[in-house]
What we know:
Blueprint: H1 3-13, E1 28-31, H2 38-41, E2 45-47, E3 56-67, E4 80-96, E5 99-112, E6 120-133, E7 139-151, E8 158-174, E9 179-194, E10 201-212, E11 217-230, E12 236-252, E13 255-268, E14 275-289
Antiparallel strand pairs: 1-2, 3-4, 3-14, 4-5, 5-6, 6-7, 7-8, 8-9, 9-10, 10-11, 11-12, 12-13, 13-14
Amino acid sequence: MEGLRADDAAASLLSSDTKDDLTGLDNLGVEAPSSAADDDIGLQLILRKHEKSRHFRATAHTSGFWTSNAANVNAGAVEDYFMVGGVNLAWQQRLKGRFIGDVQAGLSSFRYDKLDILNYEYWEGTAGLIIQMPELWDTLLYVQYGYQRITQDLDSDALYESHSARLGAYRAFTINRLNSIHVSLQSQLSFAAEPEFLQRHEHWAQLGYSLRLSRTLALLTTYRTVFYDYFNFEGRQDWYHNAGVALNWRPKEWLEMSAGYNFTFNSSNVDVFDYETHLAGPSIALRVRF
């Protein structure tokens, strides 16, 4: 199941929605033209009429990657190319006050060039609440039930299944009209998994920086560290580190393209699970809200 770690690196390069619609920015329009007063009054947004609440979102994405270590192994690393394609369906709606209902389901297919034995389907679903906390510097908290499933093919039995409870926090810091930082924290506590020896708790922190190069172009850098506690695997514990940079182009609300590079290294108290991986490639995502 070490391939799932490669997916985590790939996922950081795949296009993903921001939390803007959770913080009320979905009801705002484009930025006002720059002016000499920007340093004093900050970023200005032009309000637009919000004609219809759109609670559903559908996303389709496809990406191609080169990896220096396709199987995430300690020795005998093999370079390879792989494709990722998938769909995601999401529902979000304010329930009452600060509480927002959030349900998502997605499927991604991974197809390798040389090592096609690594091909698989990755299913994931989450359901829970997002809680706006203006008294905590506009932090977003969330609590979710999460389900993960890996299969060899679409119609095959599961190679891996996991049920978990997730608790996390997200905070964005706007420095100025061009620069912003976001911080994320999450704990994922697994209460059931098959096979059982792969069951694990996960605790991670992520720091990201975004530089707006234009209205449609942004440079993104991220760093994520994860602690994996395999409590049914002879005391195995891993520290996973991932650093990446991506150039994102979003010419339309429904279209996003990006290209990026990631470096990953995993440090385990079981030496055979130590590894390093370089990953690079382009991606494209299409989104429809309704």
